[in-house]
């Protein structure tokens, strides 16, 4: 069976778990605490980051961007009308632009600081960067969520899904990030009905179910985290 | 003519300038000071980042990753044996893995802090984040260059170019980042003969020439910056 080295609240890992779910692929999940810098893990990904997807034959693909492109190249055509990276070069630009938007910009401004400060630092040793959370980083990240919700609302006012008429990698990446932030209770859903309606559509997909049953030891998710009707 | 919104010491812009050079494409360069957040620029790239490649018909592609994929999809076959993103899915994984290595990891650890602290802050207004450089960030970035040089040396000991036997996007991205750091005089080339030999090969390509004539007002490049023999 294929495997996926992941971390439960790593948004890039979650993006690929959603992608695998949409492809109907099973993969054994192996939890990786990247800050421990395990030697066997560094051998399959020198960069030391999650996720890493490995084929049954051992061929390893590190990084959510390379994994998404690889799965599209090797299995995308089989999805036919449900392909997650569309055919046309212009449509692909729009999906990849939004992948950068969420996987780089949203990640830097929101997901990465929140997950590091609120989750990872609890489990890291002192010499691994652990310790109490930095409140200023958390406050800045929380403030940034708002304009990203407005951007999602603006996109879905023009289109059925974020990058166009069909569900694409862009929706799955955006939802993966928001699901981490939502676990931590930091998405002000009540402020944006349109963004919330888009998220409710994604959240009710079967591919989303495994994410909703993730639990971080000692940290319960927000009350509505796994409520499909919010 | 096509256009490229860029910033001279933006490594992502330099990567695409090298790519356009290898494709034999001409594009009008438009310098963009991203921190000014020009309204017309935000209209073609909401994320407000360089580079943005625009076709003569106005179709805009923002971000070095999406641009590289788009150029390969629309013009890659014409390069035949010199294609910069190879044919096979496994070979493509290796190129994209290294693109992430340089465009994300090297960028976060080295290029971004050095260019922001040493260059951009000189031109930014107080309210845009300008001011004196933070020396601790500069020192950390300088220390990080070393292991990246060793990684380049390790790769080129096994292969002709970084991702395999042929020149690829991986070499151009790596060289783009190093060229920014080299402009600032922060690459300890004397410490790694193999990495230096690889860089000398890239630096002597015709596609590299325009980068070597870039000058930042009031900041001369390091003495060997445009010396093809170092």
From TrEMBL, chains A, B:
Residues 1-79 form the GST N-terminal domain. Residues 88-230 form the GST C-terminal domain. One of its GO terms (biological process) is glutathione metabolic process. Pfam families: GST_C, GST_N_3. The keyword Transferase applies. The keyword Repeat does not apply. PROSITE patterns: GST_CTER (PS50405), GST_NTER (PS50404). GO terms for molecular function: glutathione transferase activity. Keywords: Transferase. Gene3D superfamilies: 1.20.1050.10, Glutaredoxin. It comes from the Bacteria. Homodimer. This is Glutathione S-transferase.
């Amino acid at each position: 069976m294929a495997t996926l080295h992941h971390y439960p609240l790593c948004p890039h890992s979650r993006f690929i778990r959603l992608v695998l779910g949409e492809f109907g692929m099973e993969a054994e999940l192996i939890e990786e605490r990247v800050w421990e810098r395990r030697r066997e893990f560094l051998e399959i990904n020198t960069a030391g980051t999650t996720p890493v997807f490995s084929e049954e034959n051992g061929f390893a693909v590190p990084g959510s961007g390379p994994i998404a492109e690889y799965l599209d190249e090797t299995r995308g055509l089989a999805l036919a009308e449900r392909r997650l990276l569309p055919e046309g070069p212009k449509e692909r630009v729009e999906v990849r632009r939004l992948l950068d938007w969420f996987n780089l910009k949203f990640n830097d401004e929101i997901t990465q600081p929140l997950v590091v400060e609120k989750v990872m630092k609890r489990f890291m040793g002192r010499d691994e960067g652990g310790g109490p959370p930095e409140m200023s980083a958390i406050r800045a990240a929380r403030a940034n969520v708002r304009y990203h919700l407005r951007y999602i609302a603006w996109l879905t006012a023009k289109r059925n899904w974020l990058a166009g008429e069909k569900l694409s990698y862009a929706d799955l990446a955006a939802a993966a990030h928001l699901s981490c932030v939502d676990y931590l209770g930091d998405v002000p859903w009540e402020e944006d009905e349109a963004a919330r309606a888009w998220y409710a559509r994604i959240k009710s997909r079967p591919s989303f179910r495994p994410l909703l049953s993730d639990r971080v030891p000692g940290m319960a998710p927000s009350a509505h985290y796994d409520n499909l009707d919010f």
